Amino acid sequence: MLRGMKKILAKERVKIICEVYPSEMASLGYSIAEIPEFLSLYNYKIFLIDKSRRLNAVDDLLDVRAHYLFISEEGLRNARQKFGRVSRSVKFIEELVCSKRKEKLYEGCLWEKE
Known about the structure:
By secondary structure, the protein is an alpha+beta fold. The protein has one domain (3-109). The protein has helices at residues 6-11, 22-27, 34-40, 73-83, 90-98; strands at 16-20, 44-49, 55-58, 66-72.
């Protein structure tokens, strides 16, 4: 998915919320280590969205299924200017990712019941 977005990542500086399945990637011949390497080419940062829907900056992806926010350094700077700091809360994620469309991240959007 990300490789097909090279022009968008370079030019548009989009924010991406992505669910990563390491075992599925491996079965297709890919490694989760490729994602941070690829995103670093476009100056993107990675935040793990934990089970309580909070952001945690990470350098590498977990080896289990997880949700992430990929955001450019420019987007992160803009967020800091707009909000004063980068919050870990779901409200911040909503404002950061959905504010232009006035959408909300709803409870079941990131994790189904296990």
